[in-house]
Design a protein that fits this description.
This protein has four domains: about 90 residues, Beta Barrel (OB fold (Dihydrolipoamide Acetyltransferase, E2P)); about 60 residues, no CATH class; about 190 residues, 3-Layer(aba) Sandwich (Rossmann fold); about 190 residues, Rossmann fold (3-Layer(aba) Sandwich). The protein has 22 helices and 20 strands. The longest helix has about 30 residues. The strands form four sheets. It has a seven-stranded parallel β-sheet with strand order 10-11-9-12-13-8-14, sandwiched between helices. A six-stranded parallel β-sheet has the order 15-20-19-16-18-17, sandwiched between helices. A five-stranded mixed beta barrel has the order 2-3-4-6-5. The structure holds adenosine-5'-diphosphate and magnesium ion (MG).
Length: about 700
């Protein structure tokens, strides 16, 4: 029996031929390493009994079954037991202990050696225990946990388990150990090969958990190392513009705002002023719920750069948002000498070229734009501050490209999606994090109610009363896919399919023909031309409408303090974070707002998950807690709304459940890079290729930054 190496093809495992190997390949398992790293997704208690169908000559085994025959004459006493997979005769040459207790229908447990007798398998001279038919026999000596593996119709979990057992019988192949021994000791984790072996054949659940945690830790460590290295690369040797603050500059910036900054805004400004005053390039993530006042903070940063005669850029994810940012900034900058411009894809060629020249010559101080800012012909005279209003729609790639536009500008990403700490530590793990915790003063509360479809009429009547008294409302309907019973996550604003429009229209018809008869209502959806959409929003802002019936296009950007009522139709079809975003459209004025989540659709009553999900929103307005719940329910890819979020596929670790482990791995990774930035020490030699394997393409995204 030759020993296997981890790189051998599965086909070389005894008992696995080319046909089986193909079945393994269908599960993505090709090498012995793949096989060993295919961990059980759960465990079953194996009581240690061998099935009668599996008995082989000369085996020592314990079987359990129902007594179906008692025969022979003393001393040739026999009994036959049936365990559902076959029948086996038990044979004794002397009066067996317990024999008197045997009766037809009893449960018997027999342990002994298997022999061939007249070409049939028998168990000779077994030790015997007899139980009542309904009793649970004690486990046999070989009792253990057995893994249940992800399998296919052709390739059962059992066959996979047998192949893995075979590998270990043929001699234990070694897989690479990446984790330095000192770290394993510090974290109390086993070596890699030991962990794999333990994962496949644990004695206890605690063993199995320890094994999986070890492999999860390794994954987290590699991921965090990639981030630590990236962060180092961003900062090492790079000099950012030194932008010191002075009381005079601070005063001149603050007079631009028609309000006093909140304590939360001030705290964040202190953090970023410390960054940019140090000469170290800032890389900071600014988190704050919708309406928390991120724009003022961003503008403060930009004006600090401009005060030092550098340029600043603000990038928004859509044209509409870029325009809104620009309009908002215009309000703050009216009468100032700051030269500002809006650069979007919609700009005519002539104007665009003139603007680009201005930017290149340093005749523009502050540019607001979309992705158009990333195009290759845009270059700045002296770009010192980049603000990216992420709205969680930007991927790593685009940020990376923006980076290359000047000599190490400072960099602030704003996001309205509260990012759970676990993701902040991974996807954005190379950034410092600031949080605006408190909204500006004078805001009313938002009361959230989950209502069932049958309550709709009554609730809408109630809302009608408030609309007639001068409040305004949004009614949001989900995008609906081809199959009307199935919802698509309505995450991406954009051109809407035809059937979605009918659903918005239907909602409008039901309202205008029913509880909201006679009120001024308008449609708003992504299929409308931008000017029409803008006109509807303006009419709402001007108070000319009672309500708009909309798709999720109103999720971003619209800011109308008098709109205090949000009704979400089919709320069960939205993600929690998205509902939180939608709810953020109200509660912007001094009045208390109302958010009505209409839970509809088949089986909601029985779909406790949907009901539970919505209950989270009714319970809390804390975006971080909502985001945590959402992450738990939908995973990081969905939550971030993009595939380019830079997270590798994790095979062993769970970002939510293993949070404490993730924190440990992060501490360890950053410490490693601090002490050995090139990973040149012998105990770190295995790390770089392992990082590369885990991160794959994602790594090149990181390198581009
Ligand atoms: P965000 O971008 O975080 O969603 P904004 O920066 O757009 O929030 O601010 C939301 C609203 O709050 C704006 O109307 C803004 O004028 C107002 N605002 C911001 N900061 C303050 C403050 N310190 N005091 C009062 N109002 C503020
Ligand atoms: Mg904003």
């Amino acid at each position: 029996m030759s020993a296997l190496t981890a790189d051998d093809a599965i086909q070389f495992v005894r008992g696995v031929g080319p046909r089986r190997a193909e079945q393994f390949a269908a599960l993505g398992l090709r090498s012995v390493r793949d096989l060993l790293e295919h961990l059980p997704f759960r465990y079953e208690h194996d009581q240690g009994f061998v099935e009668i169908a599996d008995l082989r000559p000369e085996m020592n085994a314990t079987i359990r079954g129902r007594v179906v025959r008692i025969g022979g004459r003393y001393p040739g006493q026999t009994a036959q037991i049936d365990d559902g997979t076959g029948r086996c005769t038990l044979r004794w040459f002397q009066r067996p202990q317990g024999r008197d207790a045997l009766y037809i229908g009893a449960t018997a447990v027999a342990t002994g050696r298997v022999k061939v007798y007249s070409e049939r398998l028998e168990m000779v001279q077994p030790a015997l225990r007899v139980y009542r038919p309904d009793a649970t026999p004690e486990p046999a000596a070989g009792a253990r946990l057995v893994g249940v593996y992800r399998a296919t119709a052709e390739l059962t979990s059992r066959t996979i388990r047998q192949a893995i057992e075979q590998v270990y019988q043929q001699g234990a192949p070694t897989t690479e150990e990446f984790v330095p021994t000192a770290l394993l000791a510090r974290r109390g984790l086993p070596k890699r090969d030991a962990a794999l072996r333990l994962a496949h054949a644990p004695r206890t659940e605690a063993d199995a958990d320890l094994a999986r945690r070890r492999l999860a830790y390794e994954e987290f460590l590699l991921l965090e190392l990639a981030l630590a290295l990236r962060r180092r690369r961003l900062l090492s040797g790079e000099v950012g513009c030194v932008l010191p603050i002075s009381p005079e500059i601070d005063r001149r910036i603050r007079v631009r705002f028609p309000f006093a900054l909140t304590a939360s805004q001030d705290a964040v400004i202190r953090e970023l002023v410390a960054d940019v005053g140090s000469g170290r390039p800032m890389t900071r993530l600014l988190q704050g719920d919708v309406g928390s006042g991120k724009t003022a903070v961003a503008l403060y940063a930009c004006l600090l750069a401009v005060a030092h005669r550098h340029q600043a850029a603000i990038m928004a994810p859509t044209e509409i948002l870029a325009q809104q940012h620009f309009a908002g900034i215009e309000r703050y900058l009216r009468g100032s000498r700051v030269r500002r411009a809006l650069l979007t894809g919609a700009l005519p060629r002539r104007e665009r070229e003139a603007l680009l020249r201005g930017i290149e010559r340093g005749e523009v101080d502050l540019v607001v734009g979309t992705q158009a800012l990333l195009e290759h012909d845009v270059s700045f005279a002296s770009l010192a501050m980049i603000v990216v209003d992420e709205q969680h729609k930007f991927g790593v790639v685009q940020r990376a490209r923006f980076r290359t536009k000047g000599p190490m500008p400072h960099y602030l990403v704003m996001t309205a999606t509260p990012i759970p700490r676990t993701l902040a530590m991974t996807v954005f793990g190379d950034l410092d994090v600031s949080v605006i915790a408190q909204p500006p003063p004078g805001r009313g509360q938002v009361i959230t109610r989950v209502v069932a479809g049958r309550q709709w009429e009554a609730v809408m009547q109630h809302v009608r009363g408030r609309l007639e008294a001068g409040e305004q409302a949004y009614v949001v309907c989900p995008r609906i896919g081809d199959d009307p019973a199935r919802a698509e996550p309505a995450d991406e604003p954009g051109p809407a399919p035809q059937h979605e429009l009918t659903s918005v229209r239907q909602a409008l018809e039901r309202l205008s023909g029913g509880p909201w008869r006679g009120l001024k209502l308008a449609l708003l959806h992504g299929g409308m031309p931008a000017e029409e959409r803008q006109a509807v929003v303006s009419a709402l802002a001007a108070g000319a409408l009672h309500a708009v019936v909309s798709t999720t296009v109103i999720e971003v950007g619209v800011d109308i303090p008098n709109a205090t009522i949000m009704v979400v139709e089919h709320a069960e079809r939205f993600g929690l974070s998205q509902l939180h975003q939608l709810r953020g459209r109200v509660g912007r004025g001094p009045r208390d707002s109302l958010c009505v989540l209409v839970a509809r659709g088949p089986g909601l009553g029985s779909d406790t998950r949907a009901a539970e999900r919505l209950a989270v929103l009714a319970r809390t307005t804390d975006g971080f807690r909502i985001a945590e719940a959402d992450l738990r329910q939908r995973g990081p890819g969905e939550l971030l709304g993009t595939r380019q979020h830079g997270l590798p596929v994790l095979r062993f670790g769970d970002l939510v459940a293993d949070f404490a482990l993730l924190e440990q791995a992060r501490d360890d990774a950053f410490e490693i890079v601090r002490n050995d930035p090139e990973l040149a020490a012998p105990e770190h030699a295995a790390l770089p290729p392992a990082i590369e394997r885990l991160m794959g393409e994602k790594l090149s995204l990181i390198d581009a930054a």
